[in-house]
């Protein structure tokens, strides 16, 4: 019974969260004096994509073209499955939740690469290779940040990490963690300054040849990954389901929505530099910075 | 009409613009102010908006872009008259209601015959190179950075590629993401003086930097509030004599100043990544870029 309830909660969190993320994207023009769209706009856009036909390029990798959006969505769901909706109530209660989430992050690179590989077209392939080049060094700061959050909890379990924040949230004792993890989230969800897979200079990159239900599913999976990333960030840095008065799941949803809004705002307002410069920034600045963050967090946790 | 079609009809019309001679500023302003979705590729569109004169030499390219828009599709011509937004929305609603739209303009077959040479009938050597069906395949060549033998891929981009100025056709040879050879096959179309408007020039660069919101705001007459836009452009990119680099030209455009001549801009592309090259080309005014292209084409 509890498992069925958690499955339902996970599915509805992903679905409602994806709609909310899509709406946030359509509210973002307000930041720039533009017109915002109403809450029905994401549903209309989804219907428009579903109504269009699927186009097949010449000699595509059909199997991976169909599987890539499914993998992306499955990874978002798998990542969310280890996040506790209430203290001790994750769908998959594992002592190695961080490792499971880290695996989902790494496999996202594979899913995005396959999405760019499968149409057998130049711009999608360039987007795929760019993403692989950028995604790999992003995984290292991610692991350092998550391990740093695990140190006060003395466990790799998200449930233990939540418990370790009863007195003080990790965002207070590890202030660098969330900004660094936000870069990971922008990469996983192909957004703004980290969207090297689907950039404008390659006509939408891995999505350049997408149309119809395939495009709708890919965009839906991107939004689902935004929900999962935000839930993991809310759990790791904002105490997850901990909070006064309201039930645990409600607190997690509120915090997840806040991280989603932040990720969307950063995605719409921060410039994307060129891939080679970003690689330099990742290896020369962010990687050492995340290591220092881990070192300081470790010393403080002693 | 099904409930799905009714829902879809309320979505912004997905439009891929094909910009011809003299139409660049009006098309850019249309998409900055209207409730339309500018599709990043023809595959993402349902409507094809053709604006301005398309030279005879590029009619086949136009037909190819037309056929890349998934069916059902509709093509519309626009010469600057009022009411284009309503026409596009009407066309979108018509498609959602089940209209069959435009037929293909070109036969669904390769543009060139099969070249039956090489071990696998593709031309070239072994399993690489050649131009099967007129499509150039990657072939190993010396890497410009370290001398290793890496795949070189040659392709023509333009005249209606969204990241390049309208009309510009480049034949580029890429090693990975790096341009190792670049020829100008066709210069950008002539555009009115208005296309050199600093706000439009800066907005083109903002779009390439992943900032369509600030770009639209700039075109509407507001300020481009974005974090790190200037610093995201590599220092020294597309440096020209007497015209500074792309970062400087972008900063000048934000201050309302136009750049100067773009002589030699195409020479600076060799060794750049594709994204850097697109930024460098967008950093000069359309009139200056056309002049530079005419000199090398």
TrEMBL record, chain A:
GO molecular function, one term: NADH dehydrogenase activity
Keyword Endoplasmic reticulum: no
Chain ranges passing through the membrane: 71-92, 98-117, 129-151, 223-244, 250-271, 278-301
Pfam families: NADHdh (PF00146)
GO cellular component term of the entry, any: plasma membrane
Principal subcellular localisation of the protein: membrane
InterPro entries: NADH_UbQ_OxRdtase_su1/FPO
UniProt-listed GO biological process terms: aerobic respiration
Keyword terms: Membrane, NAD, Transmembrane, Transmembrane helix
Compartments in which it is found: Cell membrane; Membrane
Coiled coil residues, start to end: none
Highest taxon listed in the record's lineage: Bacteria
Membrane disposition: Multi-pass membrane protein
Similarity comment: Belongs to the complex I subunit 1 family.
PANTHER family registered for this protein in UniProt: NADH DEHYDROGENASE SUBUNIT 1, NADH-UBIQUINONE OXIDOREDUCTASE CHAIN 1
Protein name: NADH-quinone oxidoreductase subunit H
Organism: Maritimibacter harenae
Lineage start: Bacteria, Pseudomonadati, Pseudomonadota, Alphaproteobacteria, Rhodobacterales
Automatic annotation (TrEMBL), chain B:
Name of the protein: Uncharacterized protein
Top-level lineage group: Bacteria
Region span, Disordered: 100-125
Organism: Maritimibacter harenae
